[in-house]
Protein: Tyrosine decarboxylase
Amino acid sequence: MGDLNFDHPLQSNYSPVESLLDPMEFRRQAQMMVDFIADYYENIEKYSVVSQVQPGYLKPLLPKSAPYYPEPIETILKDVQHYIVPGLTHWQNPNYFAYFPSSGSIAGFLGEMLATGFNIVGFNWMSSPAATELESIVMDWLGEILCLPKSFLFSGNGGGVLQGTTCEAILCTLVAARDQMLSRIGKENIGKLVVYCSDQTHSAFQKASLIAGIHPNNFRVIKTTSSTSFALSPRSLRSTICSDIQQGLVPAYLCATVGTTSTTAVDPLGPLCDVTKDYGIWVHVDAAYAGSICICPEFRHFIDGVEGANSFSFSAHKWFFTTLDCCCLWVKDPSALIKALSTNPEYLRNKATDSKQVVDYKDWQIALSRRFRAMKLWLVLRSYGVEKLRNILRSHVEMAKLFEELIATDKRFEIVVPRNFALVCFRVSPSAISEGKTIPSSELLGDNKYINDINKKLLESINASGRSYMTHTVIDGMFVLRCAIGATLTEEPHIIMASEVVKQHADAILNMSTLMIYMGRVD
Amino acid sequence: MGDLNFDHPLQSNYSPVESLLDPMEFRRQAQMMVDFIADYYENIEKYSVVSQVQPGYLKPLLPKSAPYYPEPIETILKDVQHYIVPGLTHWQNPNYFAYFPSSGSIAGFLGEMLATGFNIVGFNWMSSPAATELESIVMDWLGEILCLPKSFLFSGNGGGVLQGTTCEAILCTLVAARDQMLSRIGKENIGKLVVYCSDQTHSAFQKASLIAGIHPNNFRVIKTTSSTSFALSPRSLRSTICSDIQQGLVPAYLCATVGTTSTTAVDPLGPLCDVTKDYGIWVHVDAAYAGSICICPEFRHFIDGVEGANSFSFSAHKWFFTTLDCCCLWVKDPSALIKALSTNPEYLRNKATDSKQVVDYKDWQIALSRRFRAMKLWLVLRSYGVEKLRNILRSHVEMAKLFEELIATDKRFEIVVPRNFALVCFRVSPSAISEGKTIPSSELLGDNKYINDINKKLLESINASGRSYMTHTVIDGMFVLRCAIGATLTEEPHIIMASEVVKQHADAILNMSTLMIYMGRVD
Structure:
């Protein structure tokens, strides 16, 4: 490793293909890559789930500069295997339970191949009509599967668009809401606009607010408590809004969440919209993670009340098998987006746009250029069908239930919040430490520090084993382990193993901490 | 066509695969897709370059809703061929000369396959160290090939990041510049910030300014003229800045362009930066299209003066064979980006980040989630090498020269602006119409309308033929045809054919217009 020398380029004896898109050569190399990736999936469980490399590992392994002459794909693939794969955290590994899933699928992969193969730039209808039309059709299909109100669909004068990520979906709708409000009160009053969320809302919203020029003092983070399972309280929202209005500020936007990142808490959409409608506040529903499962009738109630919102998004690349990136955004009033985001330079003018008979998606998003993302979503819907997609998502929830059960029946652990979907939040409970130990329980329980340290060590130890990867959150002062089930390859045996990994590492950590306690070294 | 019926789902006899990522099934379906795309490239010249479908063509061809049961890939691929391909504008067709190229390559395609196969979400170092480290390394490689000043590279305390598009690169740097300035003058003064560009700057900058909350009245568009070949004049810039300062406004950001979209004009970076440095204005250099060719020593002078700028971007998906999307952005002061764009929620905290030994690219961009784009850029650099990449780009310039020559030697046409790179801007010249016609030349030349209509008809007629696709711009009141060479499959015979297509259609249009003139129907 690291013995390649590109610093003094010599003519390679590799004969470069004539064209960079020669179909024969394309066939040969792409089939080699198919095998490489299929082999990767076949062997994926052999890799440490979380990469164990140290910062800066790669630089000494690669040449100091780009090669002067072409290199054959065979050499490059060897380097991918030797240098890149060890530096990957394997999100497709069935033992991956960190953050939220990034769930790939064959259909998602094929759709990405097609989009990359065509390599069209679908900024407006004209630039490739199929890209725009397929996107509009598929977004209506998906909206219907989710039982979104017709007002969010093209068939009901709303409409859907594929963004890259939730961050972009939030930013676009926030800018639309901002400009809608400023058109009433004057652009110079941007400093008066206030936006709302809970302390559980994703950081993407804070970032979007900063980007959109909302004054940082006007970013309201409303505290949630365990009494509402960390959902945003409509009453707290109303009192915050009222206090802002009294100060001469102008409420503009609420970001509500269905399935928060920390614990998958669900904000009560109906009651929240009942509050906001009195003030003309734009409500965006961020269901990035949990939106997917709302295609199952028995989960649909989690987005009840969405009819009162202005926009709704979920990320098909998270838990809908559509590969990164693919965030589905629906809005009731596309014209608000278009007013805020459209540009019309001469070099993009065309008859179709002038006719106003077509959708030009460049006016629904930040960027001009856009990939043909509808292709992969269409392939996922068609390859698997609604029934199978529902059943797979249900199987993830069932596996989460199983994991929860396996953990909960071990008295050393506690489940920290009620499980809504396929995320289990748990920790070693204080009682597992205090039971029969010399440490006074007040010291253990006082500020969570000691018990948090134990749980932190447990998580580090699990992840260092390479057998499972979980992440954490802090909620109500508690350090909590998150086990998010949803990787495409995960099956029941992986769940059972994950619970065993947790227990084994807890054994070691708890024995060690007991020892430390007896030795009087508690910190 | 259109005879599929999904409205009454019946159990299909297609047996769904057990896992959505089963390696055997992955191999089978992905190889089928490789063949599909290779066949597409083999046959690409048979398709009309620009799609000839009418708005709304697709809806009647597809089922009203998503299927309930799985469908086999064979059926889906048939539908792609029958329903989608006719609705594509074929950006990879060698007869594609519209907008700017979206140049694919085998290496770019393979890199995308790998990124999609791994499907990691590289928001921070921890989430997949290889993704971050490869990106930093490749951006230094590429920066060196471009002879960017060391201050833009990680090795010189600057750094590079892969964004999706130029729009995002501009927005991120604008927000960094905005916040840097507001930290001096107070957040409440956002309404005082002024941003600058020329009337040739891409509309992405206007959009970014609106998104970032710059007051629309403070968006300065400085007029260019043919006397400077539509480059921004440093003198005009200075006088605009001075007038703003006199009015108590605060100049914050200049977007300079190397290779404008209309005509590939080049703003003089050195002299512009000499102006801006007196006022602490952030200068971004947008070389989205032309940046690529600056890897050739003989073209490098077009970005001379970049050392005075704060940031520089070019889009590798345009004319660097890296498939959409992949915009390379370098900044001298990453901390300005990070200050403006970082968030640090608990659920993303980790030891590597806390150690400050790593790059967390989430803080260099709008979104949190990010694809492993470095993979395809790395594959392009390694598969082709610097020499071959230079030679291919040079061959595009040579082909543009040839096209220019073929058009210019036909006296009916004129080349409208000097050609800098591989874009030729031309039109039927007024003299081609006025020569020996009954129309008084004052009427023809007075306001360009008549001659513009002729050129517009010419372009429509070329594109309707399906044999070539070009687009237009309007410059100095003139409707101009743009022929942008750079599609990967384009070779000399395509250029010769394109010039013949232009001439044949000009024959028809000019004969027709002569007839109309003789008949006294000139409008």
User: Anything to note?
Assistant: Chain A touches chain B through 157 residues (CB under 8 Å).
